[in-house]
């Protein structure tokens, strides 16, 4: 039975998409069947995998609004064990449409029910902002992976995200767990980065899991999407790719220890 | 008569808040009366100015949903000529409420009508994602300032933003102009940064204004919010503060040339 993990943080630009793509690639490399779902209208996970949105006729919008079976819109990324559900441009109007329909927070959860049998991990890349689509992802998820940029605003926003997760637990998804916090874009030359790392590791010590693997700032990670490839394949020897491989290993160890 | 400028880009983490705060501070330094409005539930513009959200009873939510006069919720930042309208936590549920009410896209525009006489510039910091609150900001604005991080995903997302602006022009705000594109977080050591700068300057050469001032990546800009101050006051001699001062000058020259 597959596990659904939502990669979420309402703060923008913290590394959600970069983490979703490279963790998914890392898990697939270890032989696990992975499905990456792009719920962001920006479609960064989709283009970061080299999928051209203009060639796609059916996407997540059709599944969520018109209840088109999700299994029909799955795309093979070309990497072994790694499939994706792309986002299409019509996703940007989905919140307005979702507000008008029944079970609006549960559409994704219901759609994913069958797919849980087909994949070991279903990773959901979320948009910034706590929109109805993000609520759908948090309702469908077994756990939430929180990328946290080592910056002041990102740290400040963490409380709001944890509050939103607790709200989801109250009604829509009582069993929603926190998979852990992944520190991203760490720059060892700045005091600020170190301060954020220390604060997070101290504050969450006995509360939530903070991954030991810290993702450093590495230009190879931001170059990879322009080639439509996960960094793991674009530049496997880069420190960014190595960090995401280490994260995948640590993630799998954590699952095994469950 | 004051000019309303919305600082907007649905891509997350591109420097909207940092630009909104430091441009506002720069204009105020030149003697212009400035009002900065924080429409993001994250409240980064609010905390970046040292305003403690917990001490605020009335905020933008009350003005937009309950039509409370905006003039009553204005706060003095303590910097000369520089006022602010803070965001409060209840803003995160505002989209769901806005969907149910009349004139939902125009609430901010209507509220700002009186204030345009009081300020030279009203700067609106927008959240990531094209939510109903962002639509309100784009409907109220005379022009849109687009911070563009010198990264691949940010460049890719520009088309979507320009598309959204055109949609707003079709119905809600036919006179919405583009103030210009400000390149941010430029890192001269990376080829990617240079590529994005070249592409933007070439593509927009005869179409839209691209500010000559490019904001470099500078840790002082990301430290400043933890002290609750604009970088212009936190570390006036830093290259980040100097860049935003140069941007303010260029911006004012552009207004004068109108
Ligand atoms: N560790 C890193 N080092 C350098 N650049 C990075 C790193 N992680 C991500 N980036 C780059 O930083 C930018 C933001 O990352 P990304 O788009 O993954 O964040 P996000 O949280 O998904 O953003 P959004 O909120 O818009 O969805 C991107 O241009 C990405 O390529
Ligand atoms: N030129 C810069 N150099 C270094 N750091 C910067 C620069 N501009 C912004 N930052 C930092 O990068 C992060 C993102 O910037 P900021 O929060 O202003 O972007 P935003 O577009 O407002 O994000 P969001 O989409 O979440 O609203 C912040 O931590 C900020 O302090
Ligand atoms: Mg993303
Ligand atoms: Mg912001």
Terminal CA distance of chain A reads 15 Å
Radius of gyration of chain A: 17 Å
Average pLDDT rating of chain A: 95
Bound molecules: adenosine-5'-triphosphate, magnesium ion
Main beta sheet of chain A, described?
A: 7 strands, mixed
Low-confidence stretches of chain A: none
Summarize the SSE layout with pairings.
The structure is a homodimer of 258-residue chains.
Chain A: E1 3-7, H1 16-29, E2 34-38, H2 44-48, H3 60-66, E3 75-76, E4 82-85, H4 94-98, H5 107-112, E5 121-125, H6 132-140, E6 143-149, H7 152-170, E7 177-184, H8 191-203, H9 219-223, H10 231-234, H11 239-256
Helix pairs in contact in A: 1-11
One adenosine-5'-triphosphate sits between chains A (12-18, 40, 44, 127-128, 184-185, 215, 217-218, 221-222, 225, 240) and B (11-13, 128, 151-153).
Characterization of the model:
Two copies of one chain form a homodimer. Chain A is α/β, with parallel strands linked by helices. Helices cover 41% and strands 14% of the residues of chain A. The first copy, chain A, has helices at residues 16-29, 44-48, 60-66, 94-98, 107-112, 132-140, 152-170, 191-203, 219-223, 231-234, 239-256; strands at 3-7, 34-38, 75-76, 82-85, 121-125, 143-149, 177-184. Chain A has a seven-stranded mixed beta sheet, with helices on both faces. In chain A, a hairpin with a 5-residue loop joins strand 3 and strand 4. Chain A is globular, with a radius of gyration of 17 Å. The first copy, chain A, starts with a strand and ends with a helix. The mean pLDDT of chain A is 95. Chain A binds chain B through residues 10-14, 17, 41-42, 44, 47-48, 89, 92, 95-96, 99, 127-132, 149, 151-153, 156-157, 160, 164, 187, 190-192, 219, 222-223, 225-226, and chain B through 10-14, 17, 41-42, 44, 47-48, 89, 92, 95-96, 99, 127-132, 149, 151-153, 156-157, 160, 164, 187, 190-192, 219, 222-223, 225-226. Bound molecules: adenosine-5'-triphosphate (2 copies) and magnesium ion (MG) (2 copies). One adenosine-5'-triphosphate sits between chains B (12-18, 40, 44, 127-128, 184-185, 215, 217-218, 221-222, 225, 240) and A (11-13, 128, 151, 153).
């Amino acid at each position: 039975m597959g596990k659904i993990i939502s990669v979420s943080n309402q703060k923008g630009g913290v590394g959600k998409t970069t983490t979703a793509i490279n963790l998914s690639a890392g898990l697939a490399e270890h032989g696990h069947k992975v499905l990456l779902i792009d719920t962001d209208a920006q479609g960064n996970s989709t283009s970061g995998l080299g999928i051209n949105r203009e060639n796609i006729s059916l996407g997540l919008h059709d599944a969520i609004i018109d209840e088109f079976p999700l299994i029909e819109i799955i795309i093979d990324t070309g990497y072994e064990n790694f499939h994706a559900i792309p986002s299409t441009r019509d996703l940007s109007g989905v919140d307005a449409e979702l507000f008008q329909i029944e079970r609006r927070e549960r559409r994704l959860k219901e759609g994913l029910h069958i797919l849980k049998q087909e994949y070991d991990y279903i990773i959901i890349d979320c948009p910034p902002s706590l929109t109805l689509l993000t609520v759908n992802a948090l309702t469908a998820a077994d756990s939430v992976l929180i990328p946290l940029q080592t910056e002041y605003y990102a740290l400040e926003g963490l409380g709001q995200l944890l509050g939103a997760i607790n709200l989801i637990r109250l009604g829509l998804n009582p069993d929603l767990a926190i998979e852990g916090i992944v520190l991203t874009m760490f720059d060892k030359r700045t005091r600020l980065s170190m301060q954020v790392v220390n604060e997070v590791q101290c504050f969450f010590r006995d509360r939530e899991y903070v991954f030991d693997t810290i993702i450093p700032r590495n230009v190879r990670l931001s170059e990879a999407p322009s080639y439509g490839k996960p960094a793991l394949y674009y530049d496997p020897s880069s420190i960014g790719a190595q960090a995401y491989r280490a994260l995948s290993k640590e993630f799998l160890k954590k699952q095994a220890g469950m």
